[in-house]
Design goal:
By secondary structure, this protein is of the alpha+beta class. The chain contains seven helices and 21 strands. It folds into three domains: 126 residues, no CATH class; 76 residues, 2-Layer Sandwich (Gyrase A, domain 2); 138 residues, no CATH class. 24% of the residues are buried.
Length: 368
Protein backbone atom coordinates (compact mmCIF):
# COMPACT_ATOMS: atom_id res chain seq x y z
CA UNK A 1 0.00 0.00 0.00
CA UNK A 2 1.33 3.42 -0.92
CA UNK A 3 1.63 5.88 1.94
CA UNK A 4 0.70 9.52 1.49
CA UNK A 5 3.42 12.14 1.16
CA UNK A 6 3.53 15.90 1.03
CA UNK A 7 1.12 17.08 -1.65
CA UNK A 8 2.75 18.67 -4.65
CA UNK A 9 1.15 21.78 -6.24
CA UNK A 10 -0.01 19.74 -9.22
CA UNK A 11 -2.12 17.49 -7.01
CA UNK A 12 -2.97 19.95 -4.25
CA UNK A 13 -6.00 21.03 -6.28
CA UNK A 14 -7.27 17.44 -6.29
CA UNK A 15 -6.96 17.14 -2.53
CA UNK A 16 -8.74 20.46 -2.06
CA UNK A 17 -11.57 19.35 -4.33
CA UNK A 18 -11.83 16.14 -2.34
CA UNK A 19 -11.95 17.99 0.97
CA UNK A 20 -14.68 20.31 -0.28
CA UNK A 21 -16.71 17.49 -1.78
CA UNK A 22 -16.42 14.91 1.01
CA UNK A 23 -19.78 15.90 2.43
CA UNK A 24 -22.13 16.47 -0.48
CA UNK A 25 -24.67 19.18 0.18
CA UNK A 26 -28.17 19.34 -1.16
CA UNK A 27 -28.85 22.03 -3.76
CA UNK A 28 -31.97 23.93 -4.74
CA UNK A 29 -33.91 22.94 -7.83
CA UNK A 30 -33.57 26.47 -9.23
CA UNK A 31 -29.76 26.01 -9.25
CA UNK A 32 -29.72 22.81 -11.33
CA UNK A 33 -32.76 23.26 -13.59
CA UNK A 34 -34.77 25.94 -15.36
CA UNK A 35 -38.42 26.17 -16.30
CA UNK A 36 -39.12 25.69 -20.00
CA UNK A 37 -40.47 28.83 -21.65
CA UNK A 38 -38.98 31.15 -19.04
CA UNK A 39 -35.78 32.34 -20.65
CA UNK A 40 -33.98 35.34 -22.09
CA UNK A 41 -34.26 36.40 -25.74
CA UNK A 42 -31.30 37.84 -27.62
CA UNK A 43 -31.60 41.24 -29.27
CA UNK A 44 -29.35 42.94 -31.81
CA UNK A 45 -29.16 46.30 -33.56
CA UNK A 46 -26.91 48.56 -35.63
CA UNK A 47 -26.16 52.13 -34.58
CA UNK A 48 -23.72 55.02 -34.40
CA UNK A 49 -21.59 56.26 -31.53
CA UNK A 50 -20.76 59.96 -31.76
CA UNK A 51 -18.68 62.39 -29.70
CA UNK A 52 -15.41 60.48 -29.98
CA UNK A 53 -12.20 62.49 -29.68
CA UNK A 54 -10.71 61.56 -33.05
CA UNK A 55 -10.78 57.84 -32.27
CA UNK A 56 -13.71 56.93 -34.51
CA UNK A 57 -13.89 55.18 -37.87
CA UNK A 58 -11.86 56.29 -40.86
CA UNK A 59 -14.59 57.04 -43.38
CA UNK A 60 -12.36 56.02 -46.26
CA UNK A 61 -11.95 52.52 -44.80
CA UNK A 62 -15.50 52.25 -43.39
CA UNK A 63 -17.99 53.09 -46.15
CA UNK A 64 -20.92 51.78 -44.07
CA UNK A 65 -20.19 54.44 -41.46
CA UNK A 66 -20.32 57.16 -44.12
CA UNK A 67 -23.62 55.84 -45.51
CA UNK A 68 -25.12 55.67 -42.02
CA UNK A 69 -24.05 59.26 -41.29
CA UNK A 70 -25.52 60.48 -44.59
CA UNK A 71 -28.81 58.70 -43.88
CA UNK A 72 -28.99 60.04 -40.30
CA UNK A 73 -28.21 63.63 -41.35
CA UNK A 74 -30.70 63.37 -44.20
CA UNK A 75 -33.50 62.40 -41.78
CA UNK A 76 -32.55 65.39 -39.63
CA UNK A 77 -32.80 67.78 -42.57
CA UNK A 78 -29.11 68.00 -43.41
CA UNK A 79 -28.61 66.62 -46.91
CA UNK A 80 -26.68 66.94 -50.16
CA UNK A 81 -23.28 66.61 -48.48
CA UNK A 82 -20.29 65.58 -50.60
CA UNK A 83 -17.55 63.20 -49.57
CA UNK A 84 -15.17 66.15 -49.14
CA UNK A 85 -17.55 67.76 -46.67
CA UNK A 86 -17.71 64.70 -44.40
CA UNK A 87 -14.24 64.04 -42.97
CA UNK A 88 -14.99 63.56 -39.30
CA UNK A 89 -13.32 60.87 -37.17
CA UNK A 90 -15.62 61.39 -34.21
CA UNK A 91 -18.16 58.75 -35.27
CA UNK A 92 -18.06 54.96 -35.12
CA UNK A 93 -20.42 52.31 -36.46
CA UNK A 94 -21.30 49.77 -33.77
CA UNK A 95 -23.30 46.60 -33.19
CA UNK A 96 -25.55 46.72 -30.13
CA UNK A 97 -26.51 43.49 -28.37
CA UNK A 98 -28.57 42.68 -25.30
CA UNK A 99 -30.75 40.04 -23.65
CA UNK A 100 -34.45 40.54 -23.04
CA UNK A 101 -35.38 38.69 -19.82
CA UNK A 102 -38.58 36.72 -19.56
CA UNK A 103 -41.68 38.64 -18.44
CA UNK A 104 -40.08 42.03 -19.24
CA UNK A 105 -42.74 44.72 -19.36
CA UNK A 106 -42.94 47.83 -21.52
CA UNK A 107 -40.95 50.66 -19.96
CA UNK A 108 -38.47 48.44 -18.11
CA UNK A 109 -34.76 48.75 -18.92
CA UNK A 110 -32.05 46.25 -19.86
CA UNK A 111 -28.25 46.40 -20.12
CA UNK A 112 -26.62 46.47 -23.54
CA UNK A 113 -23.14 45.90 -25.02
CA UNK A 114 -21.77 48.18 -27.74
CA UNK A 115 -19.05 46.80 -30.05
CA UNK A 116 -17.16 48.66 -32.77
CA UNK A 117 -17.77 47.49 -36.33
CA UNK A 118 -15.16 49.57 -38.21
CA UNK A 119 -11.58 50.64 -37.53
CA UNK A 120 -12.27 52.90 -34.54
CA UNK A 121 -9.50 52.78 -31.94
CA UNK A 122 -11.64 53.62 -28.89
CA UNK A 123 -15.26 54.29 -27.94
CA UNK A 124 -14.35 56.19 -24.78
CA UNK A 125 -16.38 59.35 -24.27
CA UNK A 126 -18.92 58.48 -26.97
CA UNK A 127 -22.71 58.52 -26.96
CA UNK A 128 -24.88 55.92 -28.66
CA UNK A 129 -27.64 57.40 -30.79
CA UNK A 130 -31.15 55.92 -30.90
CA UNK A 131 -30.78 52.28 -31.97
CA UNK A 132 -33.71 49.87 -32.42
CA UNK A 133 -33.04 46.34 -31.12
CA UNK A 134 -34.81 43.47 -32.85
CA UNK A 135 -35.21 39.79 -32.07
CA UNK A 136 -34.82 36.70 -34.23
CA UNK A 137 -38.32 37.23 -35.61
CA UNK A 138 -37.42 40.69 -36.96
CA UNK A 139 -39.68 42.61 -34.55
CA UNK A 140 -38.30 45.55 -32.57
CA UNK A 141 -38.48 44.88 -28.82
CA UNK A 142 -36.30 47.65 -27.35
CA UNK A 143 -34.65 50.96 -28.20
CA UNK A 144 -31.16 51.83 -26.96
CA UNK A 145 -29.44 55.17 -26.43
CA UNK A 146 -27.02 56.78 -23.99
CA UNK A 147 -23.37 57.43 -23.07
CA UNK A 148 -21.10 54.38 -23.27
CA UNK A 149 -18.79 53.18 -20.49
CA UNK A 150 -15.45 51.72 -21.64
CA UNK A 151 -13.27 49.72 -19.23
CA UNK A 152 -10.16 49.62 -21.45
CA UNK A 153 -8.00 52.41 -22.79
CA UNK A 154 -5.47 53.00 -25.54
CA UNK A 155 -2.60 55.54 -25.49
CA UNK A 156 -0.51 56.15 -28.61
CA UNK A 157 2.66 58.11 -29.23
CA UNK A 158 4.98 58.55 -32.15
CA UNK A 159 7.17 55.60 -31.24
CA UNK A 160 5.09 53.47 -28.88
CA UNK A 161 1.54 52.64 -27.81
CA UNK A 162 -0.10 51.08 -24.77
CA UNK A 163 -3.48 49.32 -24.82
CA UNK A 164 -5.21 48.05 -21.69
CA UNK A 165 -8.34 45.93 -22.05
CA UNK A 166 -10.54 46.31 -25.12
CA UNK A 167 -11.42 49.99 -25.70
CA UNK A 168 -13.62 49.17 -28.70
CA UNK A 169 -16.23 47.35 -26.58
CA UNK A 170 -18.41 49.24 -24.11
CA UNK A 171 -21.49 48.75 -21.93
CA UNK A 172 -24.48 50.90 -21.11
CA UNK A 173 -26.20 49.96 -17.87
CA UNK A 174 -29.98 50.20 -18.30
CA UNK A 175 -29.22 51.56 -21.76
CA UNK A 176 -32.28 50.17 -23.57
CA UNK A 177 -35.98 50.62 -22.89
CA UNK A 178 -38.35 47.72 -23.61
CA UNK A 179 -40.99 48.76 -26.14
CA UNK A 180 -42.69 45.44 -26.91
CA UNK A 181 -43.63 42.61 -24.54
CA UNK A 182 -43.35 38.93 -25.41
CA UNK A 183 -46.77 37.36 -25.07
CA UNK A 184 -46.62 34.51 -22.57
CA UNK A 185 -49.43 33.67 -20.16
CA UNK A 186 -47.93 31.54 -17.42
CA UNK A 187 -51.05 31.52 -15.27
CA UNK A 188 -53.09 29.97 -18.09
CA UNK A 189 -50.92 26.84 -18.16
CA UNK A 190 -51.97 23.64 -16.38
CA UNK A 191 -48.49 22.10 -16.28
CA UNK A 192 -44.86 23.14 -16.66
CA UNK A 193 -41.65 21.33 -17.50
CA UNK A 194 -38.32 21.58 -15.70
CA UNK A 195 -35.20 21.14 -17.84
CA UNK A 196 -32.07 19.89 -16.04
CA UNK A 197 -28.85 21.68 -16.96
CA UNK A 198 -26.99 18.36 -16.64
CA UNK A 199 -29.38 15.56 -17.69
CA UNK A 200 -29.23 12.53 -15.41
CA UNK A 201 -31.80 9.79 -14.69
CA UNK A 202 -31.03 9.64 -10.97
CA UNK A 203 -31.19 13.40 -10.47
CA UNK A 204 -34.45 13.67 -12.45
CA UNK A 205 -36.01 10.88 -10.38
CA UNK A 206 -34.97 12.53 -7.12
CA UNK A 207 -36.39 15.85 -8.34
CA UNK A 208 -39.76 14.29 -9.14
CA UNK A 209 -39.85 12.60 -5.71
CA UNK A 210 -39.02 15.86 -3.92
CA UNK A 211 -41.84 17.66 -5.73
CA UNK A 212 -44.39 14.91 -5.08
CA UNK A 213 -43.60 14.95 -1.36
CA UNK A 214 -44.90 18.53 -1.09
CA UNK A 215 -48.37 17.58 -2.31
CA UNK A 216 -48.79 20.81 -4.30
CA UNK A 217 -47.85 19.31 -7.66
CA UNK A 218 -47.82 15.99 -9.46
CA UNK A 219 -44.37 15.41 -11.02
CA UNK A 220 -43.16 12.70 -13.36
CA UNK A 221 -39.88 12.17 -15.17
CA UNK A 222 -40.21 12.29 -18.96
CA UNK A 223 -36.51 11.73 -19.74
CA UNK A 224 -33.16 12.31 -17.99
CA UNK A 225 -33.35 16.02 -18.78
CA UNK A 226 -37.05 16.79 -18.27
CA UNK A 227 -39.51 16.62 -15.35
CA UNK A 228 -43.16 17.58 -15.96
CA UNK A 229 -45.15 19.08 -13.09
CA UNK A 230 -48.93 19.52 -13.01
CA UNK A 231 -50.75 21.69 -10.47
CA UNK A 232 -53.11 20.08 -7.97
CA UNK A 233 -56.33 21.57 -6.72
CA UNK A 234 -56.53 25.36 -6.67
CA UNK A 235 -52.77 25.90 -6.77
CA UNK A 236 -51.87 27.96 -9.83
CA UNK A 237 -48.62 27.63 -11.80
CA UNK A 238 -46.82 30.78 -10.49
CA UNK A 239 -47.40 29.73 -6.87
CA UNK A 240 -46.35 26.18 -7.72
CA UNK A 241 -43.08 27.35 -9.31
CA UNK A 242 -42.31 29.55 -6.30
CA UNK A 243 -42.67 26.53 -4.03
CA UNK A 244 -40.76 24.15 -6.29
CA UNK A 245 -37.67 26.24 -7.02
CA UNK A 246 -36.56 26.29 -3.36
CA UNK A 247 -36.89 22.53 -2.80
CA UNK A 248 -33.53 20.84 -2.19
CA UNK A 249 -32.17 17.50 -3.34
CA UNK A 250 -28.85 15.68 -3.73
CA UNK A 251 -27.91 15.62 -7.45
CA UNK A 252 -26.00 12.69 -8.90
CA UNK A 253 -23.11 12.93 -11.37
CA UNK A 254 -21.05 10.65 -13.58
CA UNK A 255 -17.45 9.81 -12.81
CA UNK A 256 -15.39 12.25 -14.83
CA UNK A 257 -11.83 13.52 -15.13
CA UNK A 258 -11.31 16.88 -16.84
CA UNK A 259 -7.82 17.85 -18.00
CA UNK A 260 -6.71 21.24 -19.29
CA UNK A 261 -3.36 20.42 -20.89
CA UNK A 262 -2.60 24.09 -21.59
CA UNK A 263 -2.62 25.15 -17.94
CA UNK A 264 -1.92 21.77 -16.34
CA UNK A 265 -5.23 21.75 -14.44
CA UNK A 266 -6.73 18.40 -13.43
CA UNK A 267 -10.17 18.02 -11.83
CA UNK A 268 -11.50 14.61 -10.74
CA UNK A 269 -14.98 13.74 -9.57
CA UNK A 270 -15.49 11.90 -6.30
CA UNK A 271 -16.87 8.83 -8.15
CA UNK A 272 -13.65 8.16 -10.08
CA UNK A 273 -12.39 4.58 -9.58
CA UNK A 274 -9.55 2.53 -11.06
CA UNK A 275 -8.72 -1.16 -11.22
CA UNK A 276 -5.61 -2.58 -9.57
CA UNK A 277 -2.62 -1.48 -11.65
CA UNK A 278 1.15 -1.11 -11.39
CA UNK A 279 2.55 2.26 -12.43
CA UNK A 280 6.14 3.11 -13.24
CA UNK A 281 7.08 6.63 -14.27
CA UNK A 282 10.59 7.59 -15.27
CA UNK A 283 12.56 10.00 -17.36
CA UNK A 284 15.82 11.89 -17.69
CA UNK A 285 17.06 14.86 -15.72
CA UNK A 286 19.32 17.00 -17.91
CA UNK A 287 21.94 19.11 -16.11
CA UNK A 288 23.84 21.78 -18.06
CA UNK A 289 26.82 23.52 -16.44
CA UNK A 290 28.53 26.47 -18.07
CA UNK A 291 32.10 27.51 -17.17
CA UNK A 292 34.94 29.53 -18.70
CA UNK A 293 38.55 28.54 -19.26
CA UNK A 294 41.46 30.90 -19.95
CA UNK A 295 43.71 30.01 -22.89
CA UNK A 296 47.11 31.72 -22.66
CA UNK A 297 49.90 31.40 -25.28
CA UNK A 298 53.38 30.17 -24.44
CA UNK A 299 56.03 32.76 -23.62
CA UNK A 300 57.53 34.55 -26.66
CA UNK A 301 54.83 33.09 -28.92
CA UNK A 302 52.45 34.99 -31.17
CA UNK A 303 48.88 35.45 -29.93
CA UNK A 304 46.95 36.71 -26.95
CA UNK A 305 45.04 35.50 -23.96
CA UNK A 306 41.46 34.43 -24.76
CA UNK A 307 38.54 33.09 -22.72
CA UNK A 308 37.16 29.80 -24.02
CA UNK A 309 33.64 28.76 -22.89
CA UNK A 310 33.16 25.24 -21.59
CA UNK A 311 29.87 23.35 -21.35
CA UNK A 312 29.30 20.14 -19.41
CA UNK A 313 26.07 18.21 -19.99
CA UNK A 314 25.10 15.35 -17.68
CA UNK A 315 22.09 13.04 -18.05
CA UNK A 316 20.75 11.60 -14.82
CA UNK A 317 18.09 8.91 -15.18
CA UNK A 318 15.08 9.22 -12.90
CA UNK A 319 12.99 6.13 -12.30
CA UNK A 320 10.61 5.73 -9.40
CA UNK A 321 10.13 2.02 -9.97
CA UNK A 322 6.74 0.34 -9.92
CA UNK A 323 4.01 1.45 -7.52
CA UNK A 324 0.89 -0.65 -7.09
CA UNK A 325 -2.52 0.97 -6.75
CA UNK A 326 -5.11 -1.41 -5.35
CA UNK A 327 -8.37 -1.91 -7.20
CA UNK A 328 -11.44 0.27 -6.65
CA UNK A 329 -9.49 2.88 -4.72
CA UNK A 330 -11.09 6.12 -3.61
CA UNK A 331 -10.17 9.53 -4.93
CA UNK A 332 -8.02 10.20 -1.87
CA UNK A 333 -6.08 6.96 -2.36
CA UNK A 334 -5.61 7.74 -6.05
CA UNK A 335 -4.22 11.20 -5.23
CA UNK A 336 -1.92 9.76 -2.57
CA UNK A 337 -0.73 7.09 -4.97
CA UNK A 338 0.14 9.54 -7.72
CA UNK A 339 1.82 11.74 -5.14
CA UNK A 340 3.93 8.91 -3.83
CA UNK A 341 5.43 8.34 -7.26
CA UNK A 342 6.76 11.90 -7.13
CA UNK A 343 5.53 13.29 -10.44
CA UNK A 344 4.61 16.67 -11.87
CA UNK A 345 1.41 17.81 -13.54
CA UNK A 346 2.29 16.79 -17.10
CA UNK A 347 3.34 13.31 -15.93
CA UNK A 348 0.06 12.99 -14.05
CA UNK A 349 -1.85 13.80 -17.24
CA UNK A 350 0.14 11.18 -19.14
CA UNK A 351 -0.56 8.54 -16.46
CA UNK A 352 -4.31 9.26 -16.47
CA UNK A 353 -4.39 8.94 -20.26
CA UNK A 354 -2.48 5.65 -20.05
CA UNK A 355 -4.90 4.35 -17.38
CA UNK A 356 -7.84 5.18 -19.63
CA UNK A 357 -6.18 3.48 -22.62
CA UNK A 358 -5.55 0.39 -20.49
CA UNK A 359 -9.20 0.26 -19.43
CA UNK A 360 -8.31 0.67 -15.77
CA UNK A 361 -9.81 4.15 -15.31
CA UNK A 362 -13.57 3.94 -14.78
CA UNK A 363 -14.48 7.51 -15.65
CA UNK A 364 -15.01 9.79 -18.61
CA UNK A 365 -11.71 11.45 -19.58
CA UNK A 366 -12.27 14.88 -21.12
CA UNK A 367 -9.34 16.95 -22.40
CA UNK A 368 -10.10 20.63 -23.04
Amino acid sequence: MIGSVLLRPALAVLALMLALGTVQAEVRIKDIAHFEGIRENQLIGYGLVVGLNGSGDTLKNSPFTRKSMEGMLGRLGVGNLTDEQIKTRNTAAVMVTGNLPGFSRSGSTIDIVVSSLGDATSLKGGTLLVTPLSGADGNIYAVAQGPVAVSGFSVRGQAASVTEGVPTVARIENGAIVEREIEFSLNAMSSVRLALRNPDFTTASRMADAINETGDGLARMLDPGTVEVSARGKVDIPQLLAAIENLTLLPDSRAKVVIDAKTGTIVMGSNVRIDEVAISQGGLTVMVRESAEVSQPMPLSIGGTVVVPSTDIALRPRDSGFSVLEGQVSLQELVDGLNAIGINTQDTIAILQALKAAGALHADLEII
